[in-house]
Amino acid sequence: MGNIFTEIWEMEDLRKRVLFTLGMLGVYRMGIFVPAPGIDRVALGKFLHTQEQGSMFGLYDMFTGGALEQYSVFVLGIMPYISASIMMQLLTVMVPSLERVQKEGQQGRNRIVQYTRYLTLVIAGVQGFLMASGLEHMRVNNDTIVISPGLGFRIMTMLTVMAGSCFIMWLGEQISDRGVGNGSSILITAGIMARVPASVANFYTLVVDFQEINLLQAAILLMLGFAVVAAIVFVERGQRRIPIQYAKRVVGRQAYAGQNTHLPLKVNTSGVVPPIFASSLLTFPATISTLTSNSLLDWLSAAFHPGRWLYNLAFFGLILFFSFFYTAVTFNPVDVAENLKKQGGYIPRIRPGNETAEYLDRLLTRLTVAGATYLSAVCILPNLMQTQFHVPITFGGTGVIILTGVTLDTVAQIEAHLMTKHYDGVVGPKGTRVRNRRGLLTGGRGPAV
Question: What is the DSSP letter of 390?
Fold first, then answer.
């Protein structure tokens, strides 16, 4: 591990990227504590502590790293940008004009990115206005949370959260372009990691004071946690490699032999999007019931409380639905089969064209079922342990999946950068030598190129 850090520090380009990423994360965390106007934060904190379990407030507070409890200018976090990106991916599939724009190369992709930014501001504005309206109806011991409710407070809150979301969107794009890893994912991970020290301290207190669990139970929980993380790493790295062969090509008087490669299909193609969407939908009745008084919403909130059998069944069904839906949006077997056919590629013992598309669709269906089952098991297991075995777990399965997946992707990108340091150049035609990134002559016996 120390050797890796040494190599990162010695490689100037990677060192600058890592330091830039850490600097942007520092700016993001400082912004969490910049308060937005118009709220009694002490009263809001008391309200959230009483309503956090089973409501959307706890989910949002986890993703924003405590920004909701602080009611900062970053109260919405990166979630409006994530929602806008997913919506644009769906729209590019359903709207032919947007699909044509996306296929226009880099210029078209830039236009899609610009549309995503505009949609982010719209989503942030709507969420900010609805949040302000909901805060005006919240009560703590018959006292209002909002200092001066009214239209002015709603507009001020809307403009504040729009500005905060716009700045966070810019931070994420800067990390993606000039830092290491995906900026949006890194910001979500930073918010979740901010809750880790408090969770560890709470677990330590429970063990030392023997309030809830003893040493044996603590050891079992730690072993189970390591097993879950190992399972997540195993599945997230799991692939079904479909062999692809390319026919021999003849260009002029030269014949080129066919190449053998593979098409990798991930077990969890949809990523962490299904559990996020499923959690948001299931916590919606509990969130609305805290703002209004309605017998139907109260019944739904009690029936879909985390850990109940109806909640777990609906959670699994929604994860399965969103897994198939998002996989269908991001991976089209018909397009892949057509591209393989145009490039002269084929799957052994499978005819090109429709038969290849049907074969890919069958494989993708099986992988999606396996991936959805894995996501459901990881997300539902903490809820079962809390309700059935009364185990004090403050870290949900969705957060663990995000932490592990983003860490794996970031480490893979760092390793890709480190490979350039060990690259000694390639041998050019007729033994010529090619300069590597440091300008050193390597390989071959002829003059340097």
Answer: -
What's the token pair of residue 342? 């145009």
Q: Residue 118: its pLDDT value, please? A: 93
| 135, 176 contact by CB (below 8 A) | no
Q: Which residue has the tokens 């479909």?
A: 242
pLDDT beneath 70: ranges in the chain: 1-2, 49-60, 210-212, 249-258, 284-294, 297-298, 301, 306-307, 386-395, 421-449
Considering the domain architecture, whether residues 165 and 276 belong to the same structural domain is answered as no
- How does pLDDT run across 243-258, given as a tens digit for each residue? 998 877 666 666 566 6
Domain that residue 11 falls in: 1-195
> In this structure, what DSSP letter does residue 23 have?
H
Boundary-marking domain end, from 176, 195, 214 = 195
* 151-178 and 79-94 helices, crossing angle to 10°: 80
Same-domain check for residues 27 and 175: yes
Burial 309-338 (b: 16+ CB within 10 A, else e): eebbebbbebbbebbbbbbbbebbbeebbb
For 72-121, write each residue's pLDDT tens digit. Answer: 888 888 888 888 888 888 888 788 888 888 888 888 888 999 999 999 99
Instruction: Reduce the DSSP state of residue 429 to 3 states and report it.
Output: helix
> One-letter amino acid identity for 268?
N
Residue 313 in domain = yes
One domain for residues 292 and 350: yes
**381 and 265 part of one domain:** yes
- Which of these, 308, 275, 286, 282, lies nearest to 377 by C-alpha position? 275
Q: What's the domain count of the chain?
A: 2
Determine the Cα–Cα distance for residues 149 and 155; give it in Å rounded to an integer: 11
